[in-house]
């Protein structure tokens, strides 16, 4: 049996996203001079700067992420010479719109007040002041200040990450290693002393195979955790410590998006930002950002409080693109890339313990996402900058990375910043969506316009208490007998249920054009490349197989962004194909059954895994 190797370094980092980009950019300025010489010495390699290694799960430092719109305050403050033209697919925002989309098919599940509002809009058209009604849509005449991104940037986070990563590595201050999944933190006597990389040369169950190589233990004075909302290191620390009193991580969304070449007749100007509400379901939000080169990043957010047990982002995305307001300018376009990502939408309410002895948390997994303003990249970047400043201060003073020292430097900076101030305002802004779409919109407006003084209170619940059965959700629209028949047919064929159920309630069939309207499987092939390096264990597993066998919804299958989780006709426990997994993590929080060990978790376990979707444009 091979021995597990061990390596010492000064600082080890997990995950390379915008937060880690902000951290390493700031750290580099403090530990090396412009000529690459050391400002201070490493404890493990005397004469050299502190040794910093960052491990990233994905096969490159810019793949599988997202198009974004941001005020970019923190980014510009720490990169004052930033020229958007130097980064592909990056441009200043020139125009913003918020658009309410009316359902053109009558197929979505809308409340009576919303149906009445739609009917009134159709009847009145553009006849009342301030309503610009066309193509079954209303361009809102006013954008609330908390939603505006005026003066900011819209860009490809993948391209931005590559630019930042290359800039950091050119300083010599840090090494960034992609295709290096980190399995877990190393915790000794309640102190994080480093991380363990994932084992290689194992079978699907993680058992040693012919080319077995145990993952290395990388021990460090400080472990920086920035592995996002579904990262195994951050979640392992949360499971060990729990969350602060009153905090929860129950609110999520999956963002699914395309990057497309727009057709030649499209009049949208570079820098145009469009956000939509109301369609394809009231709970689903849409976005479209026009980037340089006649390219657009577009997609939808499907949230955890959308109580549909067969919520499928891909089919809904195709209906959203074909809404008359959008399709007249998208028709004839061509897909360039495809992607999906989980978003942690608990925000301040989901903030974990930010520091402990030997570790610090930054980025989305640390609760930086602002769910009121709909932004997170700049907040994540800024949290990394704050930690970078704190680490440089502690290194200069020769102080250890204890919980107390990190509280006094990093956490103190964060608490005194605009990130914290705005997070407090936003903390209760999304609560009302637990009561429905209309209360949710009113609640957001109340919170935003009163700067957090007022809200529409509602209790957030774990997903297993929210998701109804398929029979309950489609009551009055599809009979129980018909659902049973559809389920039997789908199971026998190894298919998900969503297409048959959506067809049944009136959603039109998707007519593929081979360019922009393509099958889900074709999107995985044409819109990037799904790749799974051999020799790793399955990173999606099911904690209790019997729970899966008894589950009638199997929301993990319905919501899978890559069709990697499929029906098992022979057993009932879903099948997982890591060759199709895009690592969005949606299965982790979409599962409708609680873990027997912890009702705040689900029956799905999401571990470290290499590979995923290759798409540096998303």
Automatic annotation (TrEMBL):
Cofactor(s) the protein needs: [4Fe-4S] cluster; FAD
InterPro entries attached to this UniProt entry: 4Fe4S_Fe-S-bd, ETF-QO, ETF-QO/FixC_UQ-bd, FAD/NAD-bd_sf
Catalytic activity: a ubiquinone + reduced [electron-transfer flavoprotein] = a ubiquinol + oxidized [electron-transfer flavoprotein] + H(+)
EC numbers on record: 1.5.5.1
Alphabetized Gene3D superfamilies for the sequence: 3.30.70.20, 3.30.9.90
Domain 4Fe-4S ferredoxin-type residue range list: 538-570, 572-602
Keyword hit for Secreted: no
UniProt keyword annotations, A-Z: Electron transport, FAD, Flavoprotein, Iron, Iron-sulfur, Metal-binding, Oxidoreductase, Transport, Ubiquinone
EC main group: oxidoreductase
Residue intervals passing through the bilayer: none
GO molecular function, one term: 4 iron, 4 sulfur cluster binding
Cofactor binding note from Swiss-Prot or TrEMBL: Binds 1 [4Fe-4S] cluster.
Keyword Electron transport belongs to the record: yes
Protein role: Accepts electrons from ETF and reduces ubiquinone.
Listed name of the protein: Electron transfer flavoprotein-ubiquinone oxidoreductase
Biological source species: Solidesulfovibrio aerotolerans
Phylogenetic lineage: Bacteria, Pseudomonadati, Thermodesulfobacteriota, Desulfovibrionia, Desulfovibrionales
